[in-house]
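Lab notebook page, bench 4
Experiment: in silico fold of construct C2
Operator: M.H.
Input chain length: 262 residues
Purpose: comparison with the prior construct
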Amino acid sequence: MTLPGSIPILPRIKRLFRPADIQVSLYREMQRALALDQSRFPEAISLPDNYGKGLPERAVEILIARLTYAPGKRVLDVGYANIMKSHAMMLRSLPSPRNLTGIDIAEPVYDASEFYQQAHRADITHTPFDAASFDLVWCISSLEHFGMDNSGYTADFVRDALMDAQAVREMLRIVAPAGQVLITVPYGRYEDLGTQRNYDREHWQSLLTIGRPLAHVREWYFRHTFGRGWHEVDAEQLRYVGYYDQANAGAGGLAVALMTRT
């Protein structure tokens, strides 16, 4: 089965839903963390012992996304067309009223109407939205793909090394005062993996520098080890970590930024 333009849809569907047991485990880990006292967020994030052991970074990402959410917030989900099942399960669990909008350069490979009240096929660097249109923008494991080879998702992509910086500027433009932009990326030593980047300090901090004059920027760093699972660390401890180092179906290190618009 193919989409117009001969883009295979079956591999995209497999990426979205395989393997099911991992996706369910990711969601269950999020629930396990939510059962802890998270009242200090965003000053602190509490993770259970052995959190997400053997699992990809989505275990941390969907937890933080859930902690930023409140009923009625106008939420933009960047890169919604290929969300993982665990992400979809998190969306399904959000208390009402939900006001979710998706944006992506690709068409979704699932029925997005269950989760999103609006959906746009558009480039996040040049959106159709007015300034201050959203209270919360999620960019979860999407920024690292911007400007890279996205032929596995759509033929309508551009190779551009500056696209991630352009996206950060646009997300800050469309979020309202006191609103938040949540960005997560794989992090450690710099790697160009073709379809995505593994960010290092230099590249990551260049993006955060864009936000600092416009927002309060809070940073967290997490590492996966098979002894402890995902746990918070200093950024320096990730300096030499490569994307595939942990064989956990995802990244070995994760950087998270929460930008609160001033």
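Observations: The radius of gyration is 17 Å. Residues 1-18 have pLDDT under 50 and may be disordered.
Next step: discuss at group meeting.
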